[in-house]
Amino acid sequence: MRDLCHPLNFCGRKTCKFEKIETGVSFAAQFYPDDGAVYVYFGVVDSAGRKLRSKFTDLHNREVAAVESDISEKLEWNDSYVLATLEAKIEDKPDWPRQHTWIRATAQKFSKVFKARLGLE
Predict the structure, then answer these.
(1) Which is it for the CA torsion 48, 119, 84, 15, positive or negative?
(2) What are the distances in angstroms from CA 77 to CA 8, 17, 81, 90, 103?
(3) Which site in 28, 40, 42, 98 is 20 to 30 Å from 6, CA atoms measured?
(4) CATH classification of the domain holding 42
C-alpha cells in the first residue's frame, strides 16, 4: 500500500506550499496521515520552461551527491521532483518543535541550493 501513496503520488496528503519561485516549480512540505513521515519537496514540472526542466534533469543526472552534500540530507529523486524525508508522526504534538525546525531548515537549504543551481536567483 505504501507504494500507492508514495509522496509523489499525492494521495491523502496535506500540503504546506512555500514561496513561489518560478512558474513550473513546486516547493512545499507534505505529510500523509498514515505514512509516519514529513517531506520537503522541490519539483520542476511540465509547466516549467524547457531550459529549466533541462537544468533540473542535469542536476538529477550529474550532481546528486553534491546537492545532497549541500543540503545535508539523503534525497529521493525522480524525473521532476526531489524530496527529503523526516520520520515523524504529525499527530505527535510534543514532537512538533523538532518537525517544524527540520521543515524550516530543510526548506531554507532547498531554496538556497536549488535556486543557485537552477539559476533562479
Answers:
(1) negative
(2) 10, 19, 6, 23, 18
(3) 98
(4) 3.30.1460
